[in-house]
């Protein structure tokens, strides 16, 4: 026999502030070290930069104190630290690009995006008082996701950069709508699956020990599968397609607990990818680069060769165990060192030790998200938190795996660290949503406690019954059941609520 | 700036990164929330003292009247037959609710028992069993219970497919 008791929870805002100080030290320290490493002196604007970063993150902390006092204390510091390290490494790559006479000035823009993203995250916390509100927008979210996915294909605003048509240009700002689509898709899947998960899990034939779903329950899911393959085919973007598909398989698995979904998902994606590899040159090239990266023939290939990937590997090797030190490597030798290959840059300058620390930050972030999913009480919140936490971890895996040649290289951004406005916005919104859900998960539930005291057998309750209550109870049991419901002793003790309610009606 | 300082700063920064990671993990270790599941027997033993204390808590005046009341010295309620054979509930000064409802003290997984089937409770120094209006009834020996009945130790009570009895 075991008893189950609620545990008291610490709000953790004080802890968060302490960790935030550490995280700011990590971010600002990286900036200072970049200055020392490149020019031998502390950057002149370090005070202004520190104040800006501190104001942003402490502002977010105050918003949490105000609107989500029970939110998880670890997530915000980790996100701030990753963002700070990202800003510093982009600043460092800028310096390298400037010296080499390439296009630079990414750090300033990234700083603006950081400010916007944190402000947006704070706005999400302030205006979204309860994550369950989002469930009302389940199908709106689906439509928005499909629109966001199709947006880059439109003639005027859509843009093709480096062979992938995933960009939308609005005035000065370029956006990757797919980054935002992963949030709306997570909302759609959570809302859809929480209603249909029983049908998906239980109905349908059983083949080879796998419980297969019925065809009609598959409808909306097939639409999204087609959409994610459409991204692959028409926008020529392996990364986004892989990200969306992974999100969708993971959420199905979380909702139904059916392993068959993972099998179906992997088979569908492998089938689709194999088809794409045969039909489209750019996908085929990616596989070539992955499998034969160090072949001279592949390395020297003019377009779609493995030059970039191998340079990244050389950078990582140059970094070794403890890195060259910030500002002392040559990360700028890799193409797209500030965005797709920021992991290689970090690995070179911080070494394996530093890169692992950053990967641990992602791991902890995802873990806190999944923990909130376990802790929160409503199914929609569980699915949403699980999906968002998964997509964060999955995106990191796909990028780092691509750069380190575990899987084929795909063009995704490293969350929080890589240069890219839409990615930063999307990931800060994800953190805000996870914070909102974790607030709900950790908040002590007053309503539930009242129910517990009222309904569960209390150890001392029966002792307090006066002796004359027993005959009354005896007679009431002997009488017809509805007769019991009005009597006094029914209000006390271990009576089951459903019976009481049933008797009154 | 000297080579040594730069190296120290470089390694110091890596240490700082890991301090952040490890202190986050330390926070997580303290940040357990949700529900705590503890063994009932040990919890009771610590809080309520010796288990067979059927006398009312606030006024422990009367000694247990063993000859008159049944099962005054019972320590455990044990399932002796049926799917749950061997399951035991340590007795204390509170009633034991038996049935299929998860809110019961002894939860039966048995289609022949009701959600709240029967109650075993201490009264005036002895243990009583009472049927809570179950569909299939509670049987003490051959007779179906209609009123709270004293339950001596070792007397089998049939509830659905299970048989329970009090043991010392």
Describe this entry's structure for a reader.
The complex is a heterodimer of chains A (505) and B (168). By secondary structure, chain A is mainly alpha-helical. Chain A has two domains: 13-442, no CATH class; 451-505, no CATH class. Chain A has helices at 13-39, 46-67, 75-100, 106-127, 138-150, 177-202, 215-234, 238-256, 259-279, 281-291, 296-299, 307-319, 342-375, 379-403, 421-442, 446-455, 469-478, 482-485, 497-504; strands at residues 2-6, 158-161, 164-170, 173-175, 206-207, 210-211. In chain A, the strands form two sheets. A three-stranded antiparallel β-sheet of chain A has the order 2-3-4, with no helix packed on it. In chain A, strand 2 (158-161) and strand 3 form a beta hairpin. In chain A, helix 3 runs antiparallel to helix 4 (106-127), helix 8 runs antiparallel to helix 9 (259-279) and helix 13 runs antiparallel to helix 14 (379-403). Chain B has 168 residues and is α+β, with helices and mostly antiparallel strands. Chain B has a six-stranded antiparallel β-sheet, with no helix packed on it. A five-stranded mixed β-sheet of chain B has the order 5-4-6-7-10, with no helix packed on it. In chain B, strand 11 (157-159) and strand 12 form a beta hairpin. The radius of gyration of chain B is 27 Å and the shape is rod-shaped. The termini of chain B are far apart. At the A-B interface, strand 1, helix 1, helix 3, helix 13 and helix 17 of A face helix 1, strand 1, helix 2, strand 3 and strand 6 of B.
Salient structural properties:
heterodimer, A: about 500 residues, two-stranded antiparallel sheet, disordered C terminus, B: about 170 residues, alpha+beta, 5-stranded mixed beta sheet, 2 helices, rod-shaped
Question: How are the SSEs ordered, and which strands pair?
Answer:
The complex is a heterodimer of chains A (505) and B (168).
Chain A lengths: L1 E5 L6 H27 L6 H22 L7 H26 L5 H22 L10 H13 L7 E4 L2 E7 L2 E3 L1 H26 L3 E2 L2 E2 L3 H20 L3 H19 L2 H21 L1 H11 L4 H4 L7 H13 L22 H34 L3 H25 L17 H22 L3 H10 L13 H10 L3 H4 L11 H8 L1
Antiparallel strand pairs in A: 2-3, 3-4, 5-6
Helix pairs in contact in A: 1-2, 1-3, 2-3, 2-4, 3-4, 3-13, 4-15, 5-6, 6-8, 6-14, 6-15, 7-8, 8-9, 8-14, 9-10, 12-13, 13-14, 13-15, 14-15
Chain B lengths: L2 H28 L4 E5 H9 L27 E6 L6 E3 L5 E4 L6 E2 L10 E6 L2 E6 L6 E3 L2 E2 L4 E2 L6 E3 L2 E6 L1
Parallel strand pairs in B: 4-5
Antiparallel strand pairs in B: 2-3, 2-12, 4-6, 6-7, 7-10, 8-9, 8-11, 11-12
């Amino acid at each position: 026999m075991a008893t189950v008791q609620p545990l008291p929870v610490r709000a953790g805002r004080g802890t968060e502030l302490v960790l935030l100080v550490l995280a700011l030290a990590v971010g600002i320290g990286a900036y200072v070290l970049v200055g020392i490493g490149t020019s031998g002196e502390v950057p002149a604007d370090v005070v202004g930069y520190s104040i800006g970063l501190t104001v942003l993150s402490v502002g977010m902390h105050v918003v949490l104190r105000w609107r989500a006092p029970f939110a998880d204390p670890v997530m915000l510091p980790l996100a701030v630290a990753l963002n700070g390290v990202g800003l510093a490494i982009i600043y460092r790559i800028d310096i390298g690009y400037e010296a080499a006479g390439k296009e630079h000035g990414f750090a300033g823009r990234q700083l603006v995006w950081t400010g916007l993203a944190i402000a947006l995250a704070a706005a999400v916390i302030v205006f979204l008082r309860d994550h369950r509100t989002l469930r009302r927008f389940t199908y709106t979210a689906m439509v928005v996701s499909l629109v966001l996915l199709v947006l880059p294909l439109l003639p005027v605003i859509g843009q093709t950069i480096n062979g992938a048509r995933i960009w939308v240009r609005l005035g000065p700002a370029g956006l990757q709508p797919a980054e935002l689509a992963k949030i709306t898709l997570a909302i759609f899947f959570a809302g859809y699956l929480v209603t249909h998960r029983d049908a998906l899990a239980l109905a349908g034939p059983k083949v080879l020990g796998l419980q297969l779903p019925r065809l009609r329950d598959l409808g909306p899911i097939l639409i999204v599968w087609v959409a994610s393959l459409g991204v692959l085919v028409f926008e020529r973007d392996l990364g986004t397609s892989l990200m969306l598909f992974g999100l969708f398989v993971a959420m199905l698995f979380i909702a139904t607990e059916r392993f068959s979904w993972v099998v179906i998902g992997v088979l569908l994606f492998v089938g689709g990818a194999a088809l794409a590899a045969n039909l489209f040159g750019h996908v085929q090239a990616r596989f070539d680069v992955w499998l034969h990266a160090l072949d001279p023939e592949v390395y020297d290939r003019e377009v779609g060769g493995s030059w970039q990937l191998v340079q990244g590997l050389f950078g990582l090797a140059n970094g070794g165990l403890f890195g060259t030190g910030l500002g002392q490597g040559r990360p700028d030798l890799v193409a797209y060192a500030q965005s797709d290959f920021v992991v290689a840059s970090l690995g070179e300058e911080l070494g394996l030790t530093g890169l692992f620390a950053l990967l641990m930050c992602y791991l902890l972030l995802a873990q806190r998200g999944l923990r909130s999913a376990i802790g929160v009480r409503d199914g929609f919140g569980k699915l949403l938190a699980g999906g968002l936490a998964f997509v964060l971890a999955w995106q990191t895996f796909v990028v780092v795996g691509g750069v380190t040649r575990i899987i084929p290289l795909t063009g995704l951004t490293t969350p929080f660290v890589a240069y890219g406005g839409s990615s930063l916005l999307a990931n800060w919104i994800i953190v805000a949503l996870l914070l909102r859900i974790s607030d709900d998960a950790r908040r002590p539930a007053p309503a539930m406690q009242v129910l517990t005291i009222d309904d569960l057998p209390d150890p001392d309750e029966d002792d307090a019954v006066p002796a004359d209550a027993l005959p009354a109870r005896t007679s009431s049991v002997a009488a017809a059941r509805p007769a019991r419901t009005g009597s006094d002793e029914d209000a006390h003790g271990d009576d089951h609520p459903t019976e009481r309610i049933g008797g009154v009606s | 700036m000297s080579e040594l300082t730069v190296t120290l700063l470089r390694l110091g920064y890596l240490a700082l990164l890991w301090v952040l990671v490890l202190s986050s993990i330390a926070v997580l270790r303290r940040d357990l929330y949700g529900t705590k599941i503890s063994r009932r027997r040990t919890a009771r033993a610590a809080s309520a003292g010796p288990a067979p204390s059927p006398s009312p808590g606030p006024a422990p005046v009367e000694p247990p009247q063993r000859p008159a009341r049944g099962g005054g010295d019972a320590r455990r309620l044990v399932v002796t037959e049926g799917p749950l054979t061997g399951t035991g509930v340590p007795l204390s000064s509170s009633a034991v609710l038996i049935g299929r409802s998860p809110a019961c003290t002894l939860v039966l997984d048995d289609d022949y028992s009701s959600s709240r089937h029967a109650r075993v409770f201490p009264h005036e120094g002895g243990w009583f069993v009472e049927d809570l209006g179950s569909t299939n009834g509670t049987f003490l020996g051959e007779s179906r219970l209609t009123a709270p009945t004293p339950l001596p130790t070792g007397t089998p009570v049939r509830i659905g497919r299970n048989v329970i009895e009090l043991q010392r």
